[in-house]
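In response to reviewer comment 3 from the previous cycle, which asked for concrete evidence that the modeling workflow produces usable outputs, we include below a single protein chain processed end to end. The sequence was submitted unchanged, and the resulting structure tokens are shown without manual editing.
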Amino acid sequence: MQEEASHMSAEVESKSDSLFEAEDPLRDGPARYLGYANEVGESFRPLVPRSIVGVTYVLSCGYVLADTYDKSAPHYPLPHDQEATRRRRRAFAGAVDTIVWQGLASVAIPGLIINRIVHMSKVGACRHRFLS
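The workflow returned the following structure tokens.
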């Protein structure tokens, strides 16, 4: 009996370890490049229609929302879950953490920086053209 309990305990530990070591297809696979789509759009903003830039933001934000769902959905409680409140809090915390981090790191900050660099380059190129 005790041997069976220790075997089950080892099995649970190996499953919990595999949760942390499991490959994350949204962060480790090719889908992660969707998070950088807005950066490409911002880079080509002076050369492409605004709608193309908007589509790149839709792709990036879609990636962020998919990653948020992927990180929070496993923690959301099942019906009749005894620890529903704790699991809801964990799901909410995971969702907030992911959406803030991915939103800032993948969309907002790089997009703003690239937008400003492209804008200043365009202004500099226009001024130089008129000075020569």
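Confidence is low (pLDDT under 50) at residues 8-19. We consider this sufficient to address the reviewer's concern, and the full set will be provided in the supplementary archive.
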